[in-house]
Structures are given as structure tokens and as C-alpha cells.
Write a structure and sequence with these properties.
One of its GO terms (cellular component) is cytosolic small ribosomal subunit. This is 30S ribosomal protein S1. One of its GO terms (molecular function) is structural constituent of ribosome. InterPro entries: NA-bd_OB-fold (IPR012340), Ribos_protein_bS1-like (IPR050437), Ribosomal_bS1 (IPR000110), Ribosomal_protein_S1-like (IPR035104), S1_domain (IPR003029). The chain is of the alpha+beta class. It has 6 domains: about 25-110, OB fold (Dihydrolipoamide Acetyltransferase, E2P), CATH 2.40.50.140; about 110-180, Nucleic acid-binding proteins (OB fold (Dihydrolipoamide Acetyltransferase, E2P)), CATH 2.40.50; about 195-265, Nucleic acid-binding proteins (OB fold (Dihydrolipoamide Acetyltransferase, E2P), Beta Barrel); about 270-350, Nucleic acid-binding proteins (OB fold (Dihydrolipoamide Acetyltransferase, E2P), Beta Barrel); about 360-435, Nucleic acid-binding proteins (OB fold (Dihydrolipoamide Acetyltransferase, E2P), Beta Barrel), CATH 2.40.50; about 445-535, OB fold (Dihydrolipoamide Acetyltransferase, E2P) (Beta Barrel), CATH 2.40.50.140. About 20% of the residues lie in helices and about 40% in strands. It has helices spanning about 1-20, 90-110, 175-190, 275-280, 360-365, 405-410, 445-450, 525-540, 545-559; strands at about 25-35, 40-45, 50-55, 70-80, 90, 110-120, 125-130, 135, 155-165, 170-175, 200-210, 210-215, 220-225, 245-255, 260-265, 285-295, 295-300, 305-310, 330-340, 345-350, 370-380, 385-390, 390-395, 420-430, 435, 460-465, 470-475, 480-485, 505-515, 520. The strands form 6 sheets. It has a 5-stranded antiparallel sheet with strand order 3-2-1-4-5. A 5-stranded antiparallel sheet has the order 8-7-6-9-10. The protein has a 5-stranded mixed barrel with strand order 11-12-13-15-14.
Length: about 550
Amino acid sequence: MAQNATMEEFEALLNESLEIDTPTEGSVVKGKVIAIEAGQAIIDVGYKMEGRVDLKEFANPGEAPELEVGDEVEVYLRNVENARGEAVISREMARREAAWDRLEEAYGKEERVEGAIFGRVKGGFTVDLGGAVAFLPGSQVDVRPVRDAGPLMGLKQPFQILKMDRRRGNIVVSRRAILEESRAEQRAEVIGNLAEGQNVDGVVKNITEYGAFVDLGGVDGLLHVTDMAWRRVNDPREILSIGETVKVQVIKINKETHRISLGMKQLQEDPWDTVIAKYPLDSVHTGRVTNITDYGAFVELEPGVEGLVHVSEMSWTKKNVHPGKIVSTSQEVEVMVLEIDTAKRRVSLGLKQTMRNPWEVFAETHPEGTLVEGEVKNITEFGLFVGLPGDIDGMVHLSDLTWEGRGEDVIGDYRKGDIVQAVVSEVDIEKERISLSIKAAGGDPYAEAIGGVKRGSIITVTVTKIEDGGIEVEYEGMKSFIRRSDLARDRADQRPERFQPGDKIDVRVTNVNSKDRRLGLSIKAREIAEEKEAVEQYGSSDSGASLGDILGAALKGDD
């Protein structure tokens, strides 16, 4: 009985010993390094169990392992025994378990954790947080995009845990959050020492198309392109370079957003203070074209003083063309000051005013009646436009194309590019119009034909055509028509058929119509005039002489 009791006690003690000394699989246990060989550490984890762990599991990313025989370490027991009778242990998993405990506590308290970036993955980087691997998105590396993350690799630095899931093994961290918090504190301190109107030194940190960011010692201020100089600055890189130290003035501080607006031109004298004195109205100056728009061109008179030459003030003759076809950027031009508005800082300039009005010049050199020659530039329904000296055009109206017929009938004979001669008939300088006459260039055949003909004159005409209503006659190339009622004094003789084409007859001029270019002719009027003259000269019918006697006497007198 005593022997049996002793065996039971021994068995109980043995089981108790096994429960105490034998570690549980899936737990972190302590062990001692008993040997280092072949890149592995042999660790005694108790109960005569030994396992092997690669030395690299004892090293931090980018560092060499610091491990010696006799060191006590914590490892994760995965299996008590493998096929070779050795314990399956892992230093990395032990560190991970310990790290997760520590990180969960820090995450709950919103505390920072220390880690090192050791690898690059799609969309970001991997970070070792003392055993646990976290994901660092590319957008969370810095407050600004990082082109080269090489200098950050392997450095121990603080991170903020944004999200973690132990079951899935996911941890997301941010370096940017730490920088922004630190930067906010620094900005608040620096901004507290700044005041609007203060002049400070800064370093150009970044340049964009709209300006430059200047580091004022921990806080950035924006130097807008319009505040860099009084003159127009198309590209900030013209006057600034990254890393350059510049003196700027604090223009405005937004206490809520901590945004700072800076200026450089405010440290220079404003050229507009002397504009009125330097550029009086109607004065002419040489400037440089800085910008061209649809509505005109900007001309720099001096750095900081620009004026606009409106498209309507660019050329006397080119009315509907783009300003870019008249001037070019960087071209030096002469301009006249037309108006100055100091309140709006605007100067109105004129380009055409520096040249004489071509219509005035033409009027002086080509008075009315001058014969000119030019090329047909355009043909419209109401006439021709002819190019003239001075790059201006004159118009030939339909009524000035020909003496005979209608202008509508002969305008089709002209083509663009034809060279024509015309006479200047009128120049209107204010309306910028020049009237020309092609028909007058060859003289006026009507005026030449009727040079000495007056109302009451007796002329000889040639019959050219017989009609029911009268006859058509010709005098010195000019056509006229004698109505039936004017063919004779006696009604019985008012018959057109008694005439033949080619007959020459004497007629009396009853009307000279220069406007319609017509002569009023009458045989009847001639006969009546001759009768009256004969009566006055040779007696009257009242004295007893018959009309036949009187006319007979008149005829004898003529003979």
C-alpha cells in the first residue's frame, strides 16, 4: 500500500512538472541561445527542447543582427517537435505578437509609434514597427509628393496608426500626419512672430506658373506672380530660382487658414507715381509689345507701366484683322498716349496716331479731278473698290462706270486684279471715303458734243430710226428723240414716215438736260421761230401782205 501511494505521488509530481515546464504551442516563450552556427541560432526553450532560428530574424531592417551565445530571447513556439525532434520556433513571430500588443495599446491611446521604412510595394511602402509590418500609402509619406524615398529608407522615425485589424494582420500608418502636426505647431509659432507690412527674408522652395512658395523659417508664404514686380512677369522663373534667398514683404496673413501672401514689388518704388509727369497726353514714346489679345496689344512703356493699344487704334486701314497680324510680341513700336487713368492704373495708347491719316495725305496729293490708276480689289453689287496709294481704297459707283447704258450692265466686264484708270471725284476725310469715276477718265462725250449748243440753237441732225411715235436722230454721236408732235408745224406733216434714215434735217434745241444727258429737239419749234422772224423782218399779215408773200420775201432775202 505504501509503495502504491509513493508511485501515485511521483506520477502526480511528474504530471505537475510537465504542465509547468512544457510550453504551450502557439505561445511566446523565453529561451537561451546555446550556439550559433551556419547562419542560425540554436535556442534552448526548456524541457530539453531546442529549436533553430535564422539570424536574420534577430536583425532590424537594414541592420546586422546583434546576438551572442548566452543571450535570453523570446520566441514563438509553433510546434513542440518536428520530424527531427526539434522545436519549431520563430523569433519574428514572437516580435510580431509582442508588437501587436504594443501597437494596439498605442492605437487606442492615439499615440505615435516608431518604425522604419524598409520596402516599396504597389501604392506605397512597407514599414517595420518593431516586429509588425505596416503599410504606408504613398500619399501619407510627406505633405508633398515625394519623388525619391531613398533617403527615408531604414531611418527610425515616428508614425501615426490610421487603421489596424489584428485578425487580418493589416496596419496602415501615416508619416504625413506627424509632419503636419509638427508643421502646424511650427507655423503657429512663426506666424505669431509675423505682422502685415513686415519685411522678411525667405528661401524660394517651389516655383509654379502662378507664383512661388517661399520658406520663412518653417512656414511657407505664397509670392504671387503679380506681386513679384511692377512689370508683367509671364514666367516666375525669369526672376526667381529654387533655393534663392529673397527679401519679401508680408502683405496679408489669414489667421484661420495660416496662409501668408507675400510681395516683392512692394519693396520697390511704384512707377505709377510718376506716370502723369513722364507720359503727357498726345506724347509719343517707344515701347515693347508684351502681350497680344483679340482686342488689342499691350505695350510696355517702362518696367511696371503697360498700356493697351486697342484694335481700333492700331491701323488706319486694317480694320478687321487680328492684332497679331499688325504687331508681334517683343516688337518695339512707337505709340501715342491717348488717355491715362491713374485710379485704374490704365494707359490707352494709339499706334495709328504716330502715322499721318492716309486719307489726309491722299487729299493733299490727289485733289478732285486727278487721274489715278489702281487695281480692282473687290466687286460688289453697287460698284468697284480700287486700291490707291497709302494702302487705301476708292469706290467707283455703278453710275460712274459708263456714260452710255446702265452700270449694272457693264460691271460684269470687270474682274479682280484688273488695272483701271479713274478720276478722283470726292474725298471725305472724316468718313474715310474716296469716290472715283471711271467714265470721267476718258472725258465727257456729252459735254464735248454740246459744247456750243444752247437752248434755241439751230443744229443739223441725222435721222437714224423711224418709229410710230417719232424719229430717233443723232448729233455728234449723241442720240435724241423727236416726238411726232414736234415733226412739223402743220398737223398734216407730222408723219414720221416722210423721213428716211440718213436724212439730215435742221432742228431747234428746246432743252439741254445735262443730268439726263439729253437734248430736247423740235422741227416744229424751228419752223415757228423762222416764221416769227420773217414776220418781224418783212412785215406782218395785218398790213395786207399774205403769209406766203412774207415767207417768199424772206426766202429771197436769204438767197
